[in-house]
Amino acid sequence: MIRRRLRALERLVGFRGSVLLFLALWSGGQAVRLAWPDPAVISTPSYLYLASLAPLWVLSIPWSVCAVLCGVQAFTVTDWVAFALTSGVLVAWAVIYLIGGIQGAIPQAYWSCIVQVTVAGLILRLSRWPDPPRDT
Fold it and tell me: What is the pTM of this model?
């Protein structure tokens, strides 16, 4: 039953739309993680650095916007804004971590930078793939 519903959803949104739905899930998770952080991680170097820049709930706003935009544009033909914004937020996040790493505030920040830039690059590549022809 779940498999049938997932296939119906993919037929509705297509390949690109399904990618955007996954990005909506990820971006929403990032927003929740920042807006309501687990007390066990608030004292980690990364969270302390991020909180020194702005309240964590403020830092969750770009991720929330990405989540909503990806969720909406998954069902539209014009979806480039969601792909571009999500990639941009990831690159901005990488820059924030890079600066924190250079300042010595975030240990091994280079790894977060690599992950964020790699995912941004993958998103940009996926955004150029056309939807395959749909079965009728």
Answer: 0.89
Q: Where are the domains of the chain?
A: 2-126
For 86, other C-beta atoms within 10 Å of its C-beta total 28
Cα–Cα distance between 31 and 118 in angstroms, integer?
A: 20
pLDDT at 4: 83
Alpha-carbon gap, residue 54 to 47, rounded angstroms = 11
In this predicted structure, what is the pLDDT of residue 136? 52
Neighbours of 54 (CB within 10 A): 11
What's residue 105's pLDDT?
96
Q: Which of 9, 34, 116, 20 is nearest to 67 (CA)?
A: 20
